[in-house]
Design a protein that fits this description.
Number of strands: 2
Oligomer: single chain
Largest sheet: 2 strands, antiparallel
Order of helices and strands: HHHHHEHHHE
Number of domains: 2
Strand content: under 5%
Strand order of the largest sheet: 1-2
Helix content: 25-40%
Distance between the termini: 95 Å
Length: about 325
């Protein structure tokens, strides 16, 4: 074997070793990330339970000193997190549930009645420790006002009139659904819509699809002085889809991440806090797995926000 061929062979072997080492590191990072994510999810449930049961001890005051120090450190150790969560679990009145593995793929048939946790996985592999530290800090201290601010041009990243929206689902590199941007309707449409739903709620299925399949629908199906379609679509996008970012229904009209520029993920937001820093860059288009049943659109789960509007009572229904 010539010297040149020998050098080439050694370089190839060295490259193969480096690639194998990189794959092993990435796999270890993935396993570590999933373990930390599961622990943080359990801790989040414990803290929420303590807020809903004021007669019991406040778990935020019971968090071990070492765990509080983790929120200010640059390196998050899995063993420290595990010991912290174990200490809190001894204070809790019940065993923390596990992460629902079916929900991760958008296929949990129990829905909101599932006894396991329905949350999304953390996403960043690089700079993982700083990301987990920020998540632990927001979970333990509940200082939502310090969450990462949104980019002012985020709406420009969202798909709008892409023809692929007719038969495909846009997702980011983490497999999370990215919604097309839905602009708030003009006041000439929005204010009449608000007036209407304050008195008599509309049947969303009827106005969006032209039909209502409910046997005894209690919502209005008649003529209006305005076209409510844009207002209904905008309102539904402000309501969180039960399947969250794993939803793959082609015509799902509910929101899968927050689209408000001024929202920082505070408690009043209907979307999970992590969606306010979600990667909105579309990297692929996936095949949908179904359509929304008409009876799922019968009514808004919540009334639209009417704050700041001086709206007198009165119907805008034609006889």
């Amino acid at each position: 074997m010539s010297r040149k061929a020998e050098i080439s062979s050694l370089n190839a072997r060295l490259k193969a070793i480096e690639e194998n080492d990189l794959r092993r590191r990435e796999e270890n990072d993935r396993i570590r990330r999933e373990e930390i994510y599961e622990l943080l999810g359990q801790l989040h449930i414990l803290l929420d339970d303590s807020e809903n049961k004021p007669e019991k001890c406040d778990l935020k005051d019971e968090v071990p000193t070492k765990h509080k120090q983790l929120s200010n450190s640059d390196d998050l150790d899995l063993g420290d997190v595990l010991r912290s969560v174990t200490a809190q679990d001894s204070v809790s009145s019940r065993k923390a549930p596990r992460i629902c593995r079916f929900y991760k793929v958008g296929n949990c048939r129990f829905g909101s009645g599932c006894r396991n946790i329905h949350t999304m996985p953390l996403r960043e592999i690089s700079s993982a420790s700083s990301y987990y530290t920020s998540q632990a800090r927001s979970t333990i201290t509940k200082q939502t006002s310090t969450s990462v601010p949104r980019e002012h041009n985020f709406a420009a990243l969202l798909p709008t009139k892409d023809p692929r929206l007719r038969d495909s689902i846009p997702v980011n590199k983490y497999g999370e659904r990215v919604d097309p941007y839905v602009e708030k309707p003009a006041e000439a449409i929005w204010e009449p819509y608000i007036r209407q739903v304050k008195r008599i709620r509309l049947c969303n299925a009827y106005y969006l699809t032209g039909r209502c399949t409910a046997k005894e629908c209690n919502y209005y199906h008649g003529r209006l002085k305005f076209d409510p379609v844009d207002a209904i679509r905008y309102q539904l996008k402000t309501e969180r889809c039960n399947k969250r970012a794993r939803c793959r229904r082609l015509d799902c009209l509910y929101g899968h991440h927050c689209q408000s520029l001024s929202c920082d993920g505070a408690k009043l937001c209907r979307f999970d806090q992590y969606t306010h820093t979600q990667d909105l860059k579309v990297v692929r288009w996936e095949t949908p797995d179904g359509r929304t049943a008409p009876d799922e659109l019968q009514e808004n789960r919540v009334l639209p926000d009417t704050s700041g509007l001086n709206i007198p009572d009165g119907l805008l229904i034609l006889p």
